[in-house]
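Researcher: Let's do a round of design. I'm pasting the structure tokens now; please hold your answer until I've finished.
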């Protein structure tokens, strides 16, 4: 019995030590859970959620800021004023791209132009993890 108690005490003492381990996860364009900025420079013309860019904070009149294109969860679009900081996009004109365009046109284009080829089995699942990779998206699922 003393051995069992001692073993449990050692196991319990080890658990907090594991809690401090920092595990890095990198999710790239086209992988499940990627949300963030996308580069459409040579990509097929994006299909947008709405034709006008969204701007949360006013920009200085002297500033000329290029719009950015983002693929984000619907809840982030709906409450953009609460999520723009996660994408470093407050005060910038933002165009949200449609999910179908992202999955059906942009992801294959991106994979082909970056030598990744193939579609894989990762379309459609947007499970709440968000990407590092291209665009550095940092959103959370709603």
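Researcher: That's everything. Go ahead.
Model: Designed sequence:
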């Amino acid at each position: 019995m003393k051995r069992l108690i001692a073993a449990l005490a050692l196991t319990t003492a080890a658990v907090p030590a594991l809690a401090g381990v920092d595990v890095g996860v990198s999710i790239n364009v086209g992988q499940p859970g990627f949300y963030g900025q996308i580069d459409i420079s040579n990509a097929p013309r994006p299909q947008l959620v709405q034709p006008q860019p969204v701007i949360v904070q006013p920009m200085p009149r002297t500033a000329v800021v290029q719009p950015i294109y983002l693929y984000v969860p619907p809840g982030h679009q709906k409450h953009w004023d609460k999520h723009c900081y996660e994408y470093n996009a407050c005060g910038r004109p933002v165009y949200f791209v449609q999910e179908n365009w992202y999955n059906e046109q942009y992801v294959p284009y991106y994979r082909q132009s970056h030598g990744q080829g193939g579609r894989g089995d990762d379309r459609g699942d947007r499970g709440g993890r968000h990407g590092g990779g291209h665009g550095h998206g940092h959103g959370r699922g709603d």
